[in-house]
Design goal:
The complex is a heterodimer of chains A (about 350) and B (about 130).
Chain A: E1 2-4, E2 7-9, H1 17-26, E3 28-32, E4 37-42, H2 46-53, E5 65-72, E6 78-87, E7 90-95, H3 100-110, E8 116-119, E9 124-130, H4 134-139, E10 154-159, E11 162-167, E12 176-182, H5 186-200, E13 204-206, H6 209-218, H7 252-261, E14 266-272, E15 282-285, H8 287-292, E16 304-314, E17 319-326, E18 336-341, E19 344-351
Parallel strand pairs in A: 3-13
Antiparallel strand pairs in A: 1-2, 3-9, 4-7, 4-8, 5-6, 6-7, 9-12, 10-11, 11-12, 14-17, 14-19, 15-16, 15-18, 16-17, 18-19
Helix pairs in contact in A: 1-6
Chain B: E1 8-9, E2 14-19, E3 22-27, H1 29-35, E4 38-43, E5 49-50, E6 55-61, E7 65-69, E8 74-79, H2 82-85, H3 89-92, E9 101-105, H4 117-124
Antiparallel strand pairs in B: 1-2, 2-3, 3-9, 4-6, 5-8, 6-7, 8-9
The chains are: A alpha+beta (about 350), B alpha+beta (about 130).
Chain lengths: ~350, ~130
């Protein structure tokens, strides 16, 4: 257990983080993610307010759809990343635990009269059920079929006899869903999903935060505070697809300048040999990087060209890998760089992201 | 937590076990459990001479990298190459297949400076 944003969080269960990761990729993982915050937005003008607040297009969303979006400041930096659900008469927004209060303050300070920004985090519990057999398992405990719902959609339904909001969403690269329900039913729902898995012979077990991190990392999903943060813009982080430049939103002008000038650095994945790259480790040039393409003849081997923002052992692809921000001229897949691990340069090859193709893209 | 009664320990959780004129070095069950899944092991090269308490390598878990210190002074005689392919052997069998290296001690009297099983058990009770 570890303290995180005011919660005691399970880092790993007795199974161990690597096995938990592999279990989620082959069957079903159950995630206790009550630390995630939920904000409800409603009232006259809420639609337009949200559209101007977040980077993604939201006004075209039908009720029951879910979409990824970014909350930016005026300079185009990422205050948080969000999952936005459009429900009948209201918006349901999932925010990161550590940004919850700042996000809500930011929203309230900009909300026009009539728009209600309500923090629903304390009365809402959130668990995720993820893995190739998650939908099959959920179908057996729900009052309507989960399997017929499209990816990135959400419905009110009963699971394990409990009225809840179900989203066919997740943060692992696997199929499955995320469940929002009254906090006092958490233990009951958690146990009934585990029991159903056992009964049906569908291997199901709790997965902790360490494996949640390696699962999302392999699948190329950003984690706020790492690949995105208040000092990172979405263009350099490869998240331009989550920005709709046909509408107005906070930070748009700043992003247009970044697009016009080209980002000063780019997020890349590095396949590292000879050690585990970790956050804060320097990325340095190698002799081969300097000769690989024209215009880099002046690069001195060993000179710093970037920094790792996350790194770990990736159990499914069996690689030691990092996400790093590097100067754009070193961002092409195939570029040979090095990561300085305990003061020694270790071979690091720029590879295509994501390392593991998420289920919804297959 | 398992404590191998044949071993002596450092308070930094390395163990040493006598095997003829050499010692086998690894990390204790308490250490592997605290570190979590071990994903990478790197030790100094065979033939290197180290002093007691000098770093002889690094064990990296899902959570963090940890230095490994020589329980006694001496020369590195062998490394457990099986850990390159499967570092999780340290988790599965830290006193057996998950050993880290073998040393030839140059100051055999240092054995007496290490914690005996009872003292190590008392030591681990503190954290």
């Amino acid at each position: 257990m570890a303290a995180f944003a005011g919660y005691d969080m399970p880092i790993s269960y007795p199974m161990g983080a690597v096995e938990e990761h592999l279990l989620c990729r082959r069957s079903v993982g159950l995630f206790d993610i009550d630390h995630m915050g939920q904000v409800e937005l409603r009232g006259p003008g809420a639609d337009e307010f949200l559209s101007g607040l977040v980077s993604a297009r939201v006004l075209d969303m039908p009720e029951g759809e879910a979409r990824y979006a970014l909350l930016l400041d005026e300079s185009g930096f990422v205050l948080d990343d969000l999952f936005v659900y459009r429900l009948p008469g209201r918006w349901w927004i999932v925010v990161n635990a550590s940004n919850r209060r700042a996000d809500i303050d930011w929203m309230r300070s900009r909300a026009p009269g009539g728009v209600i920004v309500e923090d629903r985090s304390d009365d809402t519990y959130m668990i995720a059920v993820q893995g190739p057999r998650a939908v099959e398992l959920l179908d057996s405990v729900s009052d309507r079929a989960v399997s017929v719902l499209p990816r990135f959609s959400a419905r009110e339904m009963k699971i394990g006899g409990i009225e809840l909001l179900f989203g066919r969403t997740g943060y692992t690269g696997e199929d499955g869903g995320e469940l929002f329900f009254p906090a006092d039913r958490a233990l009951e729902l958690w146990s009934s999903i585990l029991e159903e898995g056992e009964k049906r012979g569908i291997e199901t077990a709790p997965v902790g935060l360490a494996a949640r991190d390696s699962l999302r990392f392999e699948a190329g999903m950003p984690l706020h505070g790492h690949e995105i943060s208040p000092s990172v813009n979405p263009i350099e982080a490869g998240l331009k697809w989550a920005c709709d430049f046909t509408k107005d939103f906070v930070g748009r002008k700043a992003l247009e300048s970044v697009v016009a000038a080209g980002p000063a650095r780019r997020l890349v994945a590095l396949d590292v040999r000879g050690g585990v790259p970790r956050e804060g480790y320097e990325v340095v040039a190698t002799a081969s990087a300097g000769t690989a393409s024209a215009g880099m003849a002046n690069v001195v081997p060993g000179s710093k060209v970037g920094v790792c923002v996350a790194g770990m052992f990736c159990p499914s692809v069996r690689k030691y890998a990092a996400n790093a921000f590097v100067s754009p001229e070193f961002s092409k897949p195939g570029t040979a760089l090095a990561v300085s691990i305990r003061d020694k340069p270790r071979d690091a090859l720029v590879v295509k992201r994501p390392l593991y193709l998420p289920a919804y893209r297959r | 937590m398992k404590i191998d009664p044949e071993c002596r320990y450092r308070s930094t959780h390395e163990y040493a076990r006598k095997d003829g004129s050499e010692i086998v070095v690894g990390i204790s069950d308490h250490a592997q459990e605290a570190l979590g899944d071990i994903v990478f092991v790197e030790m100094v090269e065979v033939g290197k001479t180290v002093a007691q308490g000098e770093a002889v390598g690094v064990v990296e878990s899902v959570k963090a990298a940890s230095d490994i210190y020589a329980p006694m002074s001496g020369t590195i005689k062998a490394l457990n190459t099986a850990l390159q392919g499967d570092p999780s052997l340290v988790n599965k069998d830290c006193y057996g297949a998950g050993w880290l290296l073998r040393m030839s001690p140059s100051k055999p009297a240092e054995w007496e400076s290490l914690l005996d099983p009872a003292a190590y058990e008392k030591e681990t009770g503190k954290d």
